Amino acid sequence: MIKIKKLISFLVIVLVAVYVYFNYKPVLKRIMMFFEPPKPVIKEGNSYTKNRDYLFVKHTDTYVPYKYNDLLDIYYSALDQGWEEFTFYCPKEYESCIDDVGAISNDDILLSIINNYVHPFNSYSEIKTVYDDTGEVTIKINHIYNYEDIEKINYKIDDLFNINTNSYMSDRDKILKLHDYIINNTIYDVERADNKDSAYDSARMNGLLFEGYGICSAYADIMATILFRLGIDNIKVTSKNHVWNAININDSWLHLDATWDDPVTSSGTQTLSHDYFLISTDRLRELDKEEHGEHDFNNQYYLYF
Fold it and tell me: Model pTM?
C-alpha cells in the first residue's frame, strides 16, 4: 500500500512538473499579473500624431485603464501614434476591464468613430484585439495607407499647395482653393458607391489624386490631410452611409463636405458647389431636410456641434 501511495505521489509530481514545463509562461504571467501588471512599452508616435484631446476621446500618457472611457482613450491614442501593435494591461482594480475590452473590440461602429479622430495616414483598414483572462490586451492595426502610398500622396499634395496657394493667402482661402481644385479635377465614382465593381482605387486618396475618381471616404481623407498640413484641427464625421469633415476654426466647429460639393448630374457634366463649404450644424441640418438625410450624425460621438 505504501509503495502504491509513493507511486501515486510520484506520478502527481511528474504531472505537475510536465504541466508547469509546458505551461510555465501562462502560469508565470498569471502570478505576475496578480501582484502587479507589467508597464506598457510606449514608443514615439509618428509624424502624423495629433496628441489632441477631444470631448469624446483624449490622449493618454499612461495607457493604464481604470474605467470604460480610459479604454476608449487607449484605443484612440494607439491609433493616433501610428503604431501597428500595442500591448497594455488591465489592473486588478478594474474588475470589468476585460469584459469592456471585449465589448469595444467587437463594436465596429464605435471603433470606426474613434478612427475618425486620427490622421488618415494613421487610420486603420483592419483592427484586431487579442486578450486573455490575465488582463493582457494587444491591439493589432493594419493601416489604410502604407509607406509608399504616403510618400506618393505627400509629393502630390506638395504640388497642390505650390500650384494653388501662396503665403499671402488666408487659411480659409487656401482651403477653398484646394477644395475647388479637388472637385474640378475629380469625378465621383458612382459604380463604387453603389457597391459595384470599379476600375479605380476610389475609396482611398490614391484614386482621387492619381486616377481622378473618388467616393466620400477619399474626399474626406484628402481634405483632412490638407487641413493637417495647414495646422488646422479637424476630424471626420460619419452618418450611416456617409463621411465628411468637421473643422475647428476660432474655437467653432464647422462642416465641410467636398463630396456633396461635387454633385453627380444627370447630364454627366462637372459641377462645383460651395453649399457644404464651412457651414454650421444648423445649416447642415437645413440642407439635410431639404435633400437626402445623409448627414444625420450621432451626437453621442460628436459632442461639439
Answer: 0.87
Which alpha helices (DSSP H) does the chain contain, by range? 2-35, 68-81, 97-105, 108-115, 147-164, 171-184, 190-193, 205-206, 216-229, 281-290
Pairing status of strand 136-143 against strand 213-214: unpaired
Q: How far apart are CA 12 and CA 18, in angstroms?
A: 10
Beta-carbon contacts of residue 77 (< 8 Å; ≥ 6 apart): 59, 60, 63
Q: Which of 235, 221, 232, 219 is nearest to 117 (CA)?
A: 235
Question: Cα(46)–Cα(122) distance, rounded to whole angstroms?
Answer: 9
Going across the sheet that includes 252-256, the strands are 234-238, 243-249, 252-256, 277-279
Nearest-CA neighbor of 83 among 49, 111, 57, 53?
A: 49
Query: Three-class SS of residue 58?
Result: coil
Closest by Cα among 294, 289, 219 to 259: 219
Q: Which three cell numbers stand for residue 299?
A: 451626437
Blockwise average pLDDT, block size 10, the chain, 305 residues: 64 64 54 63 92 96 96 98 96 95 97 98 98 94 98 97 95 96 93 85 96 96 97 96 94 95 73 93 90 86 83
Arch. (CATH architecture) of 147-290: Roll (3.10)
Q: At what angle do helices 108-115 and 97-105 cross, to 10 degrees?
A: 80
